[in-house]
């Protein structure tokens, strides 16, 4: 059994509606999203096509578009949705408590 810990990523109000921010922890980087409905999500930070951080991308509904080649991923599931991306993102559980966003890694 592996132990996964909850890490404080940011303040909930740091992520605007329909936006994404970068969060670095140790030697890893993540993308923290907030959809148009106000839901928070987290994934690995880099596009699986090329090593470009998704925090520079565009959130559209439940999709994140990579800023380099316009590939798209489904934010809640990490599923690759538009070429050139074909490898899914790894996603992480998120919780919001006391105005702070935590991800489980």
Automatic annotation (TrEMBL):
- Which PROSITE patterns does the entry link to? RIESKE
Q: Which residues form the Rieske domain?
A: 6-103
Name-wise, this protein is Rieske 2Fe-2S domain-containing protein
Query: Which Gene3D superfamilies does the annotation name?
Result: Rieske [2Fe-2S] iron-sulphur domain
> Could you tell me which InterPro entries the record lists for this protein?
MocE_2FeS, Rieske_2Fe-2S, Rieske_2Fe-2S_sf
List required co-factors.
[2Fe-2S] cluster
GO molecular function terms noted in the UniProt entry: 2 iron, 2 sulfur cluster binding; metal ion binding; monooxygenase activity; oxidoreductase activity, acting on paired donors, with incorporation or reduction of molecular oxygen
Annotated family: Belongs to the bacterial ring-hydroxylating dioxygenase ferredoxin component family.
A Pfam family this protein belongs to? Rieske
**Membrane spanning residue stretches:** none
Keyword Transmembrane in record: no
Key words, A-Z: 2Fe-2S, Iron, Iron-sulfur, Metal-binding
